[in-house]
Protein 1
Amino acid sequence: MTAVLWKHVRVFRGSQELGEAERAEAAQHLKHVRSFSTLAVSMVKTPEKSEEIRKQLEVSFDCVKSLRFRDRQSPDSAPDLHWQDVVFTLRRSLGKDDFVRMNLPAEFWNKYDVPESIKEPLRKYIDQFESFYRDGVGLYLYGGVGVGKTSAAIAVAQVVRSLAHPVLFVTVSDLREMTRNRIDFDEGLTFLDRCKRVDFLVLDNVREEDAKEMYIGALALEDLIRHRAAAKRPTVVTSRMCFNELDNALPGFGTIAHASCVFLEVTGRNRRSTKQAELKTRLNSVVKKGM
């Protein structure tokens, strides 16, 4: 496990003397920044305690994220709040608890395959993820049946989770059933609420038929992606619908997706057909051995 700390901290600008409350807030901020460095070094030196240290780091990072500082640029201007750009990036291996919390299908826990047609743009998206994340930019992956749209989305989701961001995967049909049957994600938190609030959402298999559904239909899907776009929370959408088909079937959803997602077409062979051929070959092999 490796920990990488990247920080660029602007505490105060200008020559105005800080008030007592501001000095205390700055001291708290610097305390947590120092703890990052100390804990990151400890993680490298004591790998057996890495999980415990990771949790301490996440707590410390949450504290830093909650801080806001007054920026007095001139004696005549009112104090403004400005964001402190302190980014802690923790790459780690994922385990069962992560996959369950992400609501990830078990078939993707240990293996996923990124389609060749979008490997390069996905790599660029991941390389620049913190920038895309701050701007709330997601992905819209579209293409034919079985070309690997879901697999590609999950590949990105797992990388994002390894960077310590909360991630949720859900198909539109499953979200509909959970809403209809009032199944909660956590006590007092519905799956739909979790979809709105989670840092990074994969919304799988958006279909033309969704426009006519009573539960999680056109209006609900539009409200969901609008809520996330307004809060600058990235969403990855997978669908068979291309630009024009999406705009015709779900115009409100499509308008917001165009403004908040990079559209990528996934092409290639139908992997389900290939897998079926492999299973038949395997069965035939077993039958011959049995004879």
Protein 2
Amino acid sequence: MSFRIPLARPCTGPEEIEAAAAVIRSGRLVRGPRVEAFEKAVAEWAGVDHAVAFSSGTTALLAALRCLGVGPGDEVVVPALTFPAPAAAVVWSGAAPVFADVDPRNLDVDPADAARRTTKRTRVVIAVDQFGMPAPAVELEKIARRRGALLLVDAAC
């Protein structure tokens, strides 16, 4: 007998299934009116003029790094245990990923280890909300700021 233990199981009900089906029935799978409505709702919620939806968390991370001017010669601290997207986005931006250990209690990046791994070349610290567990963003932002870097939070998971 074979069985599978899911890493994560989405919580979907009839409303989510119908919403996905409505998009498919519309014939607009890319940049349709539902995406525009989503972007507007996110912008209003965040209190900003604009929000942009991406096709994946990976493309969002790469765009954010590029917008921040991260490139060759720069370092970005990323969790050593997470989906490959954060490190891949760093490599694709031309920078070097620097892997920080994670806290075994919640699998989020360990702030103490992240602090040890920052250098004068650190431009960004990426925190990942691993399996829905919020990363210690307040601590990580303080660590990043001490180096003149920024915190980027990846909540795609």
Protein 3
Amino acid sequence: MTTTTLSADDVRTLCDRILDEVERAVIGKREVLRLVLAAFLCPGGHVLVEDNPGLAKTLVASSFAAVLGLDFKRIQFTPDLLPGDVTGGYAYDTARGRFELRRGPIFTHLLLADEINRASPKTQSALLEAMQEHHVTLEGTTLDLPEPFMVIATQNPIEYEGTFPLPEAQLDRFLVKLSVGYPAAEEEDEILRRRAERREDRVALRPVTDAAALLAMRAAVEEVHVEPVVRRYMVDLAAATRGHKQVVVGASPRGSLALLKLARAWAALEGRAYALPDDVKRVAPWALSHRIVLDPGLWSIQRSDRAVVEEAVRTVPVPVLEDRP
């Protein structure tokens, strides 16, 4: 697919086709898939998925890679994984009598970091430069990563023994944090029906776009207009998390930028060339909740970071825009 200038309608049409194809493998999770795709439409669109085992976290990543026509690599994070296992390094080639660069799995379009919290902080930090700067430094040489480059990291909210929780600095690198959740009974029955009819586990998905097309979609999202009052609404939501009495560390300006990126991407998913306050409200819990730190002294209140963001969404005044055609 050649790279062309895309309109908001073009982006919506492509997104609908992408989601329809991904849903052939991931059933009944349209809203979750829309959030993942919205993140992919943003620069630095890294996604953290936290949920119980067996809820299609890995399947979501591999399905999007296939449908978007992207190179895909998977790393199973374990306590003995080393940074070089992620980034690669130089190895001596005895046949040629010289050191040769061997690129690690991070040199790909879409990287699945499976159970990221099982690796040591030293190995986790190997992702930091790549996620933020989109390059890797090996032996003093800086190597650019492919464009686009995204990370989907997974972690389980159970079995914490022997794990290393992600520090706030690394959590902040993820544009969104979400969960897949259990399917409804009808959706689970449909999963079983399709598996019985296929007679195999694998679902053969067709590519709808390629890397160049995804970059063109990102360029179109950058053209989505944001009114000054909507932009200020994003700032007020982030500020509300900083002033909350149960929050020790509120959302940083990187959180406000995440709101800006995701709100424009969500508007493009809807086929609009402008963002609405409703777009901001829709993405705020996923963009901000993992960027705040609750007061550990108030553990008895059993308040979640997501509840704090949802409270900010309810209480911060919503701007009123003039009617648009």
Protein 4
Amino acid sequence: MNLEEQLSITYRQLRLIAGWSLIIAPLLILAAAYLLEPTIKPTLSHYYFAEPNPGLVRTLFTGFLIFVGGILIAYRGFDNRDNWIHNAAGVFAVCVAFFPKGCDSPPELYCTSGLLSPLHAPSAVLVFVFAAWAVFNGGGFELRKRLIDEEVHTLQQARKASLITMTAGVVLYVARPFLSRGIQDFKVTILIVELLGFFGFAFHWLVMTSVIDKANLRIIIKREESKSRERELAKSLDSGARQPEQQSVVYADGEDLTLIP
């Protein structure tokens, strides 16, 4: 396996880990807390104080945010914009973990106020803002120019689905005061907003990985076809009269056949 293939596999694993973590980890947090106390809390941030002493639930909550944030910070996008959008989302995800929410009034049973709690809510909002921006950017022009029309179409459809999922919860939350009393009293609306945001972002990562996999398979096949043509050309030159020295082969369509990382 050469360096190019190793790089492609590394980025593929990063995307898959990020995508599945955004689905599995929030569900694990809810399940672990439900085993301790069979209730659903209003937001994921409330699960930081789900136990009398820091334990499994808090570890899952902070570990999830720091883990995904670290991946987004380490991830290098296809261009400078794609890179810093993901990096910013990662930084704010880590901030959400480091600066727990303030205590409600009346406070939750196990809540303790933190010195920098006011930074929690802005950091949480900015995580979703930059995550949505990352989905909207869709890898940027540098990725799309390496894809064929069918692959670009798939990526665009996935982007629409992800953004609809991510904004559906926000629309519900904003519209809640105008809906029925039962919906207004529904205490986990923000939790639904958060879960839909994570799931939409995850869908973006997983579909983008699938599209890049198909593009790289197409590139590998074209490489093999090109090598076969080169071998046939070399045989014809060896069997014929001495020809002037040939320059390196340039693909007729000018397509870049390096693997997409």
